[in-house]
Each structure stands twice: as structure tokens, then as C-alpha cells.
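[Automated response] Your request has been received and processed.

Submitted sequence:
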Amino acid sequence: MNQIIYPIVFLYGIVIGSFLNVCIYRIPKGEDVIRTRSHCMNCGHWLRWYELLPVVSYLFQRGRCRNCGEKLSLQYPMVELLNGILYVWIIWEKGITPEGILLCILSSTLLVISVIDLKTFTIPLGLNVMVFFLGLVRAGMELERATTHLIGMVVVSGFLWLLYWLTKGKGIGDGDIKLMIGAGTYLGVTNSIFALWLACFLGSILHGIRMKLFKASHQLAFGPYLSVGIIIAALYGQKLIQWYLQWMFP
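Generated structure:
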């Protein structure tokens, strides 16, 4: 059955990834993501169905618009592939369950947040509202642990808000605070703290490499690192925390 399920999950993931690219481009511009037809950003050519096949169309067109020859961003196939890989990874760990499906939706939302934040250093409010909604659904699935979800909503976001207030907005963005309100609700107390720690660890290393090798700005888009921390915490948070405690206190 796995030989059938995982290819289907991957194909479904890259199809959704194609829609995520639409969201990434249009949401920051305030454009409609549903009713407007997909088109070339350079010449306005309306794309036909065979030009919208995830990954495949990009490869067959050699990364260029069929109408004007404008080079297409590598972002398109990368987002599609990454979303497909995320879906397979999540379903591998959680199965086709309510939790697995919810986490797939969360991962897609975080992927959109990450790319937009990298490009604009902002996180659109609507996407943070989506994460908060998913957090409420996750909390509703674990009513016996409702307290940890409620505390998780404020424990990291409250710390980030304090940092925002102390640095007058220079130490952290308000979009990151709002993101962790929803993510903390989803993860609960310990996992949300772990997600923040992992995001800080990855951000300090990877952004340092980006500045050194690729001359990236000193300004840090923290959303992508928070997103990685959130997904890993949702999948392995408790296992990693328990392993660390057993290693520290054998």
C-alpha cells in the first residue's frame, strides 16, 4: 500500500505547491488568489493547462515563458517539490490521520509564510490568522490537554512581545509574535519553547553563513527559521526533549 500511497501524497503535495506559488506572489500585492487566471509576470500571457503542470512544465519549458521567453524563477519548482516532500514526510510519520492532514495544511501555510518573509521581511496577517485557526483545531483535538495549548499560546509569543517592546521593534518583528500565538496554540508549552530554541539556533548559524558567502543583509527574516522549528517540534519535539533530558540526567 505504501508504494501507492506515498506517490499519490507526493503528487497531491506538488499540485498544492503550485497554488502556494500563486499565494506567495499575490498575497503581498493584495491580489485575488482564486479568481484571477495564472499568467506570465512579464508579458501577461494567460497560461494554459499544460503550462501549469507542477515541476513538469518548468522542465519542458526549460525554465522560460513559452510566449516571451522570459526566464522563470527557480522558486516555482522548488516550492512545489518542497511541499510534496513535506507531505510525504508528514504522512510517513503521522499517517493519513486528522493530525497528519492538519500538519500538512500547517506546513503549507508555513512554507508560504517563509518565502514571503524572505522576500519582504513581513508576514501577512491573514496567514497568521490561518495558523491560529489550525492551532485552535489542534487544541480541540486534545481537549484533555487544553491547558498546555492555552499556555503555549502566550509563553513564546509573550516573550517575543517583551523583546519587541524592549528593543522598540528592532529585535523582532510583530509578525513573528503573531505567528507564535497560533503556533504556540498548536504545539503546546514545551514544544513551542523547543521550536523557538531551534529557530534561534538555526537562524544564528544559517544566516551567518548567508551573510558570509552570499552577502545577505544583516536584517534577519525570522519567519523561515520559526517555521522549520515549528514543523520539527510538531513531529519530534517530545522525543527530542526526552532524549536530551535522558542524556543530560541519565
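Summary generated for your ticket: The CA atoms of residues 32 and 237 lie 36 Å apart. The mean pLDDT is 92.
If you did not submit this request, please reply to this message.
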